[in-house]
Design a protein that fits this description.
Low-confidence stretches: none
Structural class: mainly alpha
Number of domains: 1
Distance between the termini: 22 Å
Radius of gyration: 15 Å
Mean pLDDT: 88
Number of helices: 4
Length: 69
């Protein structure tokens, strides 16, 4: 449990200095979904819009986390 607490402390310090990193990751996931929709034959990844949904969730959560930090 001590290692997990140490990990969370280090992660919190890292993210507090780079508040735009996680929203950028969300934007990249949405852009990846757009590119996958253009490529024929990708399969269920493009049909389910998995990366679009993950990108929106990561983006919203990252703004909430950045506001708290």
């Amino acid at each position: 449990m001590q290692n997990f607490n140490h990990f969370l402390d280090r992660l919190s310090e890292f993210l507090s200095k780079r508040k735009g990193l996680i929203p950028l990751l969300g934007i990249l996931l949405v852009a990846l979904n757009f590119v996958l929709r253009l490529v024929p034959g990708v399969g269920w990844l493009a049909e389910s819009d998995l990366f679009l949904h993950l990108g929106v969730i990561v983006g919203i959560l990252s703004f909430m986390i950045a506001w708290a930090l």
